[in-house]
Write a structure and sequence with these properties.
The chain is mostly beta strands and 429 residues long. Among the domains are: 60 residues; 236 residues, no CATH class. The chain is built from 4 helices and 26 strands. The strands form 6 sheets. Strands 6, 7, 8, 9, 10 and 11 form a 6-stranded antiparallel beta sheet that branches. Strand 3 and strand 4 form a beta hairpin. The protein is globular, with a radius of gyration of 21 Å.
């Protein structure tokens, strides 16, 4: 079934060499039509190996030269590695006249290879994530603000691995940041499961006993601008958690949906992955969903997570993959983008097709009649390992077109990492 959107695509860049993945993404700089484009080259999971950017003053018609910015985002000190890109673009806040961006810092005390090995092979923490809110009036000079929900130290550039910092306020950044009509900001993070349970006053051994030290719950933040301090006053919601019998990886990659009805909905990635190394309790045959919860009090408290549904009551099956949200400037409707499969979904696969669908404003459910396939696997030429999940979204400020930039990772049957970058132009009614 397809909705009314018209979709075209183009190859932006072919993979530069064997075993290399290239990706592109674009964002607006400030409130006009200046854009920044990022180019990332990688050859391993969850770690960038090269990073470049370039700028356009005319909405992407012409571009300046590429600039290598990798050294500004990656650093090593002894065995420790730090990934922390400072933003060059953000969401424009017209009420307060500045750009605001959300990003994440990741620290590997023993290097990224050992960090990921500890996580996947031993079920132990090998890296530490913290989320930052950044503000800039000119999109050149940015001020970072640690997103906090508990006591703990601030980040110190001379001591990345200070225990008082690493062990507190850990948060995997959510997938979006929304500026509300009154100038407040709204965003979600996947906060540490152990901290979420402590704040809720529940025993983590009852709520999520399998591997709480490496998994997360949900906290939604509403921020109001404090001009005197030059920072946002951030108010965290009451945390939400999910049982490890429903999602073995807790609450991951949350997307916050502020709806016209006043509901604040959150959609997140769960997982039915079984792992002996992580001691998961999930049982064989447990379905894989996108999960959904909502707030009727502006984001202070949330319902219990339930499987997300279409407006006809059918459940949405989906692998453990990222998703996105965009409200169109052309028609004012909110659209969700993500992988929608059948009940066969297990762990991270299959990550196709990639669909878009309108979100119903009163309930937060997906409108079945608007379901549109953005891209699907070509079984004649593309591998079953294809991942149509590495995408970013942009609403064109001049035309109202939705631009989706995506790398088709895993398409090559013989070389998983040899992946091309695509751009899709989506015309909504």
């Amino acid at each position: 079934m397809s909705g009314s959107a018209k979709i075209s695509r183009e190859v932006v860049e072919k993979a530069p060499a064997p075993s290399l993945c290239v990706s592109h993404s674009q964002a607006y700089v400030g409130r006009g039509v200046a854009r920044v484009e990022k180019r990332i080259v990688t050859r391993e999971s969850d770690f960038d190996n090269e990073l470049y950017e370039r700028f356009s003053d005319d909405n992407g018609r012409t571009w300046g030269a590429w600039k290598d910015i990798y050294k500004a985002t990656y650093a090593a000190r002894g065995t420790a590695e730090l990934l922390w890109p400072s933003p060059s673009a953000g969401t424009w806040n017209p009420v307060h006249g500045h750009a605001v961006a959300l990003n994440m810092q990741r620290i590997f005390p023993e290097g990224h290879e050992e960090g990921y090995r500890l996580f996947w092979k031993e079920g132990r923490r090998g890296f530490y994530d913290h989320t930052f809110l950044w503000v800039s009036e000119d999109s050149l000079h940015w001020t970072p603000q640690l997103v906090r929900y508990e006591n703990g130290e601030e980040f110190h550039a001379d001591d990345w691995c200070e225990k008082g910092y690493l062990e507190n306020n850990g948060a995997y950044a959510g997938c979006n940041l929304e500026v509300l009509p009154n100038g407040d900001v709204l965003f979600a993070v996947s906060a540490r499961m152990t901290s979420c349970c402590r704040i809720l006053g529940v025993d983590v051994r009852d709520a999520f006993p399998s591997c709480p030290q490496i998994m997360g719950g949900l906290i939604v933040f509403r921020g109001s601008w404090d001009r005197a301090r030059g920072l946002y006053s951030l108010v965290p919601s009451r945390p939400a958690v999910i049982s490890d019998l429903e999602s073995s990886r807790g609450i991951d990659e949350p997307v916050v949906l502020p709806l016209a009805s006043g509901l604040v909905a959150v959609v997140f990635r769960g997982s039915n992955m079984m792992s002996k190394e992580q001691g998961t309790r999930i049982r064989k045959g447990t379905p894989s969903y996108k999960w959904f919860l909502f707030s009727e009090d502006g984001g202070r408290t949330f319902t219990k997570p339930v499987p997300w549904h279409w407006d006809d009551g059918e459940v949405l099956y989906s692998p453990a993959s990222i998703s996105g949200w965009l409200r169109s400037s052309r028609n004012g409707r909110g659209y969700w983008f993500g992988n929608a499969t059948g009940p066969e979904a297990y762990a991270n696969a299959p990550r196709y097709p990639l669909i878009m669908a309108e979100v119903e404003e009163e309930t937060g459910f997906l409108v079945k009649g608007s379901r549109t396939i953005v891209e699907d696997r070509d079984p004649a030429t593309e591998s079953e390992k294809l991942q149509l999940s590495n995408f970013t979204l942009l609403d064109d400020r001049e035309t109202g077109r939705i631009e989706l930039s995506m790398t088709k990772l895993g398409a090559n049957r013989d070389d998983f990492w040899r992946s091309d970058a695509y751009r899709y132009c989506i015309e909504v009614s």
